[in-house]
Amino acid sequence: MGHTEKGRPPYPRLMGIVNVTPDSFSDGGQYLGSSSAIERGLELIAEGADMLDIGGESTRPGASDVEPAEELDRVLPVIAELARTCEVPISIDTRHACVAAAALDGGASIVNDISAGLHDPQMLETVAQKGASFVAMHCRGEPATMQDSPRYTDAVSEIRAALKARLQACLQAGMARSKIILDPGIGFGKELDHNLEILRRLPELATLGQPLLLGVSRKSFISQACRRMPGAPDNPPSERLGGTAAAVAACVLGGASILRVHDVAIMKEACALAHALTPLSTP
Questions:
Q1: Where on the phi/psi map is residue 29: left (φ > 0), alpha (ψ -120 to 50), or beta?
Q2: First vs last Cα of the chain: how many Å apart?
Q3: pLDDT tens per residue, range 209-223
Q4: What is the rounded CA–CA span in Å between residue 92 and residue 214?
Q5: Which residues are catalytic?
Q6: What is the pLDDT, as a whole number, of residue 140?
Q7: Would you say 192 and 222 are in contact if contact means Cβ atoms under 8 Å apart?
Q8: What angle do CA 267, 269, 274 make, to 5 degrees?
Q9: What's residue 249's pLDDT?
Q10: What is the topology classification, in CATH, of domain 13-142+153-277?
Q11: Residue 242 parent element (H or E)
Q12: What pLDDT sits at residue 231?
């Protein structure tokens, strides 16, 4: 996103979302075909995406598992063509080591795993052997059941401890520290107040010393928070742009390094203003 002003943290990078799925919460089915998914990826790059995240399995609350073979059929043609025609890094959003390996061989360079390597015991070793970057996300439970009354005593402290443990697991598997990105998992086994507390206390997660990726785009917590305001509508995902921009700005001010978003051009503007508001560091 351009040069970094002296005394400010680096500009956050924007990860554009390409869901090659029939059932993702916001745009399921819209980019299911390879050609439409490739076109969408190119659109996001034109809007200013610094990287793309390609996923072939929906992990929305209540989602069913997808077999790795079907996941591969969905994502590999998209990754291959985008890697051939574009220069931005490509991430594969998967919980399966075999999908990650094939995607990395096909042109991806990042693995984004909502289970942080817990779903597939081969994941961490596979990523380490390939020398890829890895996004380790916190998720309590499986997508099908993760929103069934999640409970925490202190959500941020517990998430921080879990991410610290996964960071150590990644290092023990042979990943370079510089390749590891942490994600607190907004909306994954969390209720509204848990999500809001994560955004308020992001600096506590930043003390782990790794880049933070946040995915707040169009999520239900935005509509839930807005319903606390008298007269506010219960907007569908595609109409949560104002709330998403506010959440993205909060992430930037809290120290996030990467924002995973659907609406790149609008969120790039939100990032730029939030970045301009970050305090200047002292020598």
A1: left
A2: 24
A3: 999 999 999 999 998
A4: 16
A5: 219, 260
A6: 85
A7: no
A8: 95
A9: 98
A10: TIM Barrel (3.20.20)
A11: helix 241-254
A12: 65
How many Å apart are CA 81 and CA 254, to the nearest integer? 35
Other beta carbons within 10 angstroms of residue 62's beta carbon come to 13
Secondary structure (3-state) at 19 = strand
Query: Rounded distance, CA 46 to CA 247, Å?
Result: 23
C-beta neighbour count of 63 within 10 angstroms: 18
Residue spans per domain, the chain = 13-142+153-277
Which residue is it, tokens 């999640």? 150
Q: How far apart are CA 247 and CA 217, in angstroms?
A: 8
Give the strand order in the sheet containing 133-137. 180-183, 133-137, 110-113, 90-93, 51-55, 13-19, 258-261, 213-214
The percent of residues in the chain predicted with pLDDT above 90, rounded, is 76
Q: In this structure, are residues 43 and 34 in contact, taking their beta carbons and an 8 Å threshold?
A: no
Q: Quote the CA–CA distance of 283 and 80 in Å, as a whole number.
A: 45
Q: Which two tokens stand for residue 55?
A: 């996923």
Residues in the chain: 283
**Rounded-to-integer distance, Cα 41 and Cα 90, Å:** 10
pTM of the model: 0.90
